[in-house]
Design brief:
There is one protein chain. By secondary structure, this protein is an alpha+beta fold. The protein folds into two domains: about 1-70, no CATH class; about 90-145, no CATH class. It is about 45% helix and about 15% strand. The protein contains five helices and three strands. The chain has a three-stranded antiparallel sheet with strand order 1-2-3.
């Protein structure tokens, strides 16, 4: 896989989105290499990100870093919540209750991720950590009642 990025003036994009205040865009292209012979080629993915920074003010590498940072929260929290608790499959009729449940899932994910213990490796994935606390309810209670080490 290879990634490249380039910047352009927003007007050059000629997009029908009509985003007010956008002056510069960054495009990223991800190219894929087949892992073995015989696999059909996967076409490159091109994504565009908009910014209100004046054209030419930010270098393409900085814009690329900002775009990756933007997706960091999606990859580190929302993806984990969806894969672990199947959050996107659960619908709550009451909006206030849905917000509270989402906040509790985020809190649980952060607590489980920061938790330490003799059987927990630092890089262990969230479901394995949740299973550990399912097997050791006293440790889960201790996790909730003791201050976290930051």
């Amino acid at each position: 896989m290879a990634r490249e990025a380039w910047a352009m003036d927003w007007d050059e994009l000629r997009t029908p989105l009509g985003l007010p205040g956008q002056r510069q865009a960054v495009a990223t292209r991800t190219s894929f290499v087949a892992l073995r012979e015989g696999l059909p080629p996967k076409p490159p993915q091109v994504r565009f990100y908009a910014t209100s920074a004046p054209a030419g003010q930010l270098e393409p590498a900085r814009l690329k870093a900002l775009a990756r940072e933007h997706w960091k929260i999606e990859n580190s929290l929302h993806h984990v919540k969806d894969r672990t608790w199947l959050e996107d499959r659960h619908w709550v009729a009451n909006r206030r209750a849905g917000v509270i449940v989402a906040m509790l899932r985020s809190l649980a994910c952060c607590l489980v991720r920061r938790a330490g213990g003799p059987a927990l490796k630092r890089r262990r994935f969230c479901p394995a950590r949740i299973e550990y606390f399912n097997q050791n309810p006293s440790r889960a209670l201790k996790l909730l009642t003791t201050p976290l080490r930051l």
